[in-house]
Amino acid sequence: MAKIGIVYYSMYGETFELARAIAEGVTKGGGEAHLRRVPDPLLPDEVKESDGVKQAIEAQAEIPVATVDELPEFDGLIIGSPTRFGSATSQLQAFLDQTGPLWSEGKLLGKAAGFFTGAATIHGGHETTIMSMATFAMHQGMPIVPAGYAVAGDVQGTRSGGGPYGPTQLGTGEGLTDEERNIALDYGAHFAGIAEKLAA
Ligand SMILES: Cc1cc2nc3c(=O)[nH]c(=O)nc-3n(C[C@H](O)[C@H](O)[C@H](O)COP(=O)(O)O)c2cc1C
Fold first, then answer.
1. CA 85 to ligand 1 center in whole angstroms
2. From residue 56, how far is each of 39, 60, 131, 173 by CA, in Å?
3. pLDDT in tens, 20-65
4. What is the CA(82)–ligand 1 centre distance, in A?
5. Of the N and C termini of the chain, which has fewer Cβ atoms inside 10 Å?
6. Which atom of ligand 1 is nearest the CA belonging to 83?
7. pLDDT digits (tens, 9 = 90+) for 121-156
8. Candidates 3.40.50.11240, 2.130.10.10, 3.20.20.210, 3.40.50.360; CATH matching 3-199
């Protein structure tokens, strides 16, 4: 059984919701899903107490914090961040930037990698954010598992989130659409299968 780390940052909880659907998919696909949240130690108290952020912090309280040392224990990593100005958040990037020691020792080499995001507008940068995170996998030597169009969730017909680059959500504040959820579920299951083959 492939052990999959789903490492994400989420400020308002929407990326977290997508991460949970992917985790469910990983489990359906016979993998072992481990959600890990990237914290934001610099978030000012007034922001932590603000509407939306407070609820998101509470909802994620039980999710273990991501650590660099744990990453090599996973057979594959699915990494997610909200879109900020068309790119990944500094919080997620700061976490990835701490993986230099793993990079220098090739500790993630050959493990499967996948990416997910969310953005509030339909042309607001889903693809660019995934591409910005994907260089991490290239430098670590991790084969990237995209969704493609063949994952069973309706990638081709979706009018909300989810695309060939990976699962995504359109941040409407109303939760995942059925399409977004189905793509995330199918992607998680697909990823678990590939990660297991790579780890064999
Ligand atoms: C500082 C900032 C920058 C953002 N930049 C973009 C952007 O470039 N394109 C976009 O469509 N949405 C943008 N958004 C919206 C978020 O990507 C979107 O609301 C996302 O779903 C939030 O995810 P979260 O709930 O996991 O924090 C931005 C939000 C913030 C706070």
1. 8
2. 12, 6, 26, 12
3. 999 999 999 999 999 999 999 999 999 999 999 999 999 999 999 9
4. 6
5. C
6. 17
7. 999 999 999 999 999 999 999 999 999 998 888 999
8. 3.40.50.360
